[in-house]
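Chapter summary example.
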Amino acid sequence: MRKLRSSLLPALLVGMTLGVAHDVKAQESALTIPHVWTCSNNERFVTSGPAEKLIVQWRSKSYAMLKEQSLPGSMRFKNYDSGLDLVVIGPKAMLFNIKTGIRLADECKTVAMKEGNEAHLLAFEK
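The structure predicted for these 126 residues follows.
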């Protein structure tokens, strides 16, 4: 095995850094675009932003959601003022109103999830 010339090392490190930066940018752009979720009860909502700053658009209003602690393989987001509670697991999501105890939307999936992919929010948590 040949030794790498020391003059090539900085260029190699820059190239590796740019590759990582490209992957991070791709993940960030996937999170900032709106994701439409359609549900089994003819409801729909839209999410945008990363998990730490998730926005849910529900019935013409936008809600800033706080990420909550949840079981592995799932995510939970709440807006305590409105009572909205979004639970995302591998194959689906559900939207609840924790103030009234009503499930607002069930079996919700994005287009990518309908094609067999896991929820984008879960994919970027790994």
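To summarize the output: DSSP finds three helices and nine strands in the chain.
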